[in-house]
């Protein structure tokens, strides 16, 4: 492996600025790394020709001293982001051959900053899944292996391709999205860092919708600094998205390396249930002690409605999905399976085009929105969602950030029957992450240690709404003390 692909974004950008390397050199190193690791199935579409042409333009900009903030940095794009002229399918058969005529706002911002697009990254179909096993193109494979085992492990979901690609150095950084933990959980499984920003911090325009009140774009990178740098570029108001925030985007990198003495760290009792995995508990305790040693104040807090979060999420998210996915009918774009009548086209196309998990969630969502059940399920879930948000608001009166595990387990084997045959077991993997989406808060997952099987475990730092600065401040301190050794 070329040492160039081991560079962080910050290191690569400095080397490019100092003209020690060229963008073409850097891009070729990543292209070679991609070709040598196709067994990971991280990419569902590779675009090396596009990336190399962009790299040539980047080198010209460096020569003219007009380089952008991310000029010449090779990047992977989750297949949920519409990319003009580049196939985008949300890893679903129903969007076969769809090539968007427009660019998502987030990827346009990154292109304007000078990134080079290496390709589209694998993901769970329409972002519905926790292991990347619902992808029409097959699962992304975690680069990590358990001790004394050759079994392929899941990369996590839904942004499994993004996390696997960054972990295996198949791109310098990747875009991802988080609806109930889809940035943070795969980041924890693959030993990388991922940020789910405050809802509204990044535009959702051009991101294929799953659950519109929950979806949020964010970066997956090697470390906290790279995530802070990327989020600064990705974030900001967009007139094309009515849910995007007008709040000014701060320089997140300015929060890194600051003293955290006196910072109040909330530890929620509800995140330590009976039977919590011993490795996860030990990792969490170690993180607490590290922050305490730096002078942070540890505060015990309660988030009493946490026990209802999963049920609430799996009512609201499928309900929104059933509405968003109604547009896929075989008439306007993507897959079309003909039939004798229009209803036959709808039926045939959706039957063949949607995978099992997507169908399951559409059916759940349609049920909870139907007459007679709307008030009993959907309206009640929205009321509980408000109670969950109120829990966080009360907690943040006592603390500045909250520290929790990211996921209740490490990565598990691809094809694990206990997960595939009982979808509720898969959904339970979101137990520490869904509350953040329901409340619209920012959170970051960073690698914090290894399990007894030698697999990465993640810790999650949750911040107040639009207070990513304090979140980054705490995460930076934690990362410096953990000194996690990446692959």
Largest sheet: 11 strands, mixed
Element order: H for helix, E for strand: HHEHEHEHEHEEHEHEHHHHEHHHEEH
| Secondary-structure arrangement, i.e. CATH architecture of the domain at 3-258 | Alpha-Beta Complex
Task: Please tell me how large the radius of gyration is.
Answer: 21 Å
CATH evolutionary superfamily of the domain at 3-258: Amidase signature (AS) domain
Helix residue percentage: 25-40%
**Averaging pLDDT over every residue, what do you get?**
97
| Strand residues, percent | 5-15%
Derived from helix and strand composition plus strand pairing, the structural class reads: alpha/beta
The tally of helices reads: 16
**How many beta strands in the DSSP annotation?**
11
Q: Can you tell me the CATH topology of the domain at 3-258?
A: Amidase signature (AS) enzymes
- Taken from the alpha-carbon principal axes, the silhouette is globular
Look at the structure and give the CATH class of the domain at 3-258.
Answer: Alpha Beta
Biggest sheet: strand arrangement: 1-3-2-4-6-5-10-11-9-7-8
Distance between the termini: 12 Å
Low-confidence stretches are: none
Please give a quick description of this structure.
With 487 residues, the protein is an alpha/beta fold.
Structural summary, described in words:
The protein is an alpha/beta fold. The chain has an eleven-stranded mixed β-sheet, sandwiched between helices. It has a domain at 3-258: Amidase signature (AS) enzymes. It is globular, with a radius of gyration of 21 Å. The chain starts with 8 loop residues before the first helix and ends in a 5-residue tail after the last helix. It has 16 helices and eleven strands. Helix content is 38%, strand content 13%.
């Amino acid at each position: 492996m070329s040492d160039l692909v081991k560079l962080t974004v910050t290191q690569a950008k400095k080397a490019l600025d100092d003209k020690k390397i060229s963008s073409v050199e850097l891009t070729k190193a990543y292209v070679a790394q991609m070709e040598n690791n196709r067994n990971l199935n991280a990419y569902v579409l590779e675009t090396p020709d596009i990336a190399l042409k962009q790299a040539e333009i980047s080198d010209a900009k460096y020569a003219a001293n007009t380089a952008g903030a991310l000029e010449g940095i090779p990047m992977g794009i989750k297949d949920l982001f519409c990319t003009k002229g580049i196939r985008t399918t949300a890893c679903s058969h129903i969007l076969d051959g769809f090539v968007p005529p427009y660019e998502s706002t987030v990827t346009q911002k990154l292109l304007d900053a000078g990134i080079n697009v290496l390709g589209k990254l694998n993901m769970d179909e329409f972002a519905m899944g926790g292991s990347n096993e619902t992808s029409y193109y097959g699962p992304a494979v975690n680069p990590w292996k358990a001790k004394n085992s050759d079994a392929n492990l899941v990369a996590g979901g839904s942004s499994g391709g993004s996390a696997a690609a960054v972990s295996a150095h198949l791109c310098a950084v990747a875009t991802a999205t988080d609806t109930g933990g889809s940035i943070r959980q795969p980041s924890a499984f693959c030993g990388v860092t991922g940020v789910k920003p405050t809802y509204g911090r990044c535009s959702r325009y051009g991101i294929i919708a799953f659950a519109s009140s929950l979806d949020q774009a964010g970066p997956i990178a090697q470390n906290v600094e790279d995530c802070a740098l990327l989020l600064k570029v990705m974030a900001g108001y967009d007139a094309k998205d009515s849910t995007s925030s007008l709040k000014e985007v701060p320089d997140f990198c300015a929060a890194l390396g600051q003293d955290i003495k006196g910072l109040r760290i909330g530890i929620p009792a509800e995140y330590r249930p009976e039977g919590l995995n011993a490795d996860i508990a030990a990792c969490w305790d170690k993180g607490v002690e590290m922050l305490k040693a730096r002078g942070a104040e540890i505060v015990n807090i309660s988030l009493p409605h946490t026990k209802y979060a999963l049920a609430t999420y799996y009512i609201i998210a499928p309900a929104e999905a059933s509405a968003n996915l109604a547009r896929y009918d075989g008439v306007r774009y993507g897959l079309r399976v003909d039939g004798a009548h229009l209803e036959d086209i709808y039926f045939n196309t959706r039957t063949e085009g949607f995978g099992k998990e997507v169908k399951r969630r559409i059916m759940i969502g349609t049920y909870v929105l139907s007459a007679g059940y709307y008030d009993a399920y959907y309206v009640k879930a929205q009321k509980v969602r408000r109670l969950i948000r109120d829990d966080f608001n009360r907690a943040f009166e006592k603390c500045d950030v909250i520290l929790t595990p990211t996921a209740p387990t490490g990565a598990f084997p691809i094809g694990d029957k206990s997960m595939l045959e009982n979808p509720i077991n898969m959904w339970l993997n979101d137990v520490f992450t869904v509350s953040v989406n329901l409340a619209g808060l920012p959170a970051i997952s960073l690698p914090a240690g290894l399990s007894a099987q030698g697999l990465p475990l993640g810790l999650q730092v949750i911040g107040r709404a639009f207070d990513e600065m304090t979140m980054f401040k705490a995460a930076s301190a934690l990362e410096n003390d953990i000194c996690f050794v990446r692959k």
